[in-house]
Specification:
Agglutinin, subunit A; disulfide bond; 4-stranded antiparallel beta sheet; non-specific serine/threonine protein kinase; single chain; EC 2.7.11.1; mainly beta; S_locus_glycoprot_dom; 6-stranded mixed beta sheet
């Protein structure tokens, strides 16, 4: 499977979001009995990511609040994961994220009734284990761990619109016809699920497809059985600093997936599916304080699904 290699020198619309500035900050974890409220954040060990509550810039009054993960050391709020994207909260006085003794994260909102607007599911707690802990890792992954270190749940298994280094886009063989997909935001200030999705073809994993609803609009070339592939992306034309993205396809008895890593010292780099249906490679430039678009997919119209018709050649 050939990963899309879009050209540089493209432009994109920057999404401006407003964040509720935290009055206090905690460490990198959440434990039972100590909930997270809108006036605090959890920051990963290393300072790369933060977990907390944010409100899009065009929210109505009262503000719509979402639990999300964003880059902590980037001044422009850039979210990489949203928990309650379909169920925004509105009550800032009673809103809280709690970790229960049964190893579930519960986001509750209401007038003291404890109405759950979002919670983790299918979390199995080992019998006789000590209380769990939820840790935000420095790669942006929120992980629930048992007392013996076993991972019980992780946000990387539930992607939204962003593909981060170390994440997997996969198809599980024990769940035929299903695959992990990135799903775009609905609009510039609306994190709910949008029209576009991106991921492996649920019929065969020989290619990845960009969908508009159920209609494929673009696809990669077929996978040619490579295991690891590197792609060079220059951060900016007038610097010698560059980013190498190492792509890997892993096939096991249970699943097949794509993952990637970055070269040492590379700035924040991510793949993101925008609400307008573009799959972008973005890199943070600390000099200009902007997200540079290193490439986008689809690029030429020939890459669009069915552009030349059945059996056509472009």
């Amino acid at each position: 499977m050939n990963w899309p290699a879009p050209p540089c020198c493209t432009s994109t619309t920057v999404l401006i979001l407003l964040i509720l500035l935290p009055l206090s900050a905690s460490d990198d974890r959440l434990v039972p009995g100590k909930p997270l409220s809108p006036n605090s954040t959890i920051v990963s060990d290393g300072g790369a990511f933060a977990l907390g509550f944010f409100s899009p810039s065009n929210s109505s009054t009262p503000a719509r609040l979402y639990l999300g993960i964003w880059y902590n050391d980037v001044p422009e709020l850039t979210t990489v994961w949203v928990a309650n994207r379909e169920t925004p909260a509105t009550n800032t006085t009673t809103l809280m994220l709690s970790l229960t003794n049964t190893s579930n994260l519960v986001l509750s909102d209401g007038d003291g009734s404890g109405r759950a607007v979002w919670m983790t599911t299918n979390v199995t707690t080992p019998m006789g284990s000590s209380p769990p802990v939820a840790v935000l890792l420095n790669n942006g992954n929120l992980v629930i761990r048992s007392s013996n270190g076993t991972t019980l749940w992780q946000s990387f298994d539930h992607p939204t619109d962003t593909f981060l280094p170390g994440m997997k886009l996969r198809i599980r063989y024990n769940k035929p016809g299903t695959s992990d997909r990135l799903v775009s935001w609905k609009g510039p200030g609306d994190p709910s699920s949008g029209r576009f999705s991106y991921g492996g073809d649920p019929i065969t994993f020989l290619q990845v497809i960009l969908w508009d609803g159920d209609r494929p609009i673009s696809r990669s070339g077929p996978w040619t059985a490579y295991l690891v592939k590197s792609e060079r992306r220059y951060q900016q034309a007038n610097t010698s600093a560059d980013i190498i993205i190492y792509l890997a396809v892993v096939d096991s008895d249970e699943e097949i997936y794509i993952t990637y890593s970055l070269s040492d010292g590379a700035p924040h780099t991510r793949y993101v599916l925008t609400y307008s249906g573009e799959y972008l490679v973005q890199s943070w430039n600390s000099k200009t304080l902007t997200w540079l678009v290193l490439g986008k997919w689809p690029s030429p119209e020939c890459n669009r699904y069915g552009y030349c018709g059945t059996y056509g050649y472009c």
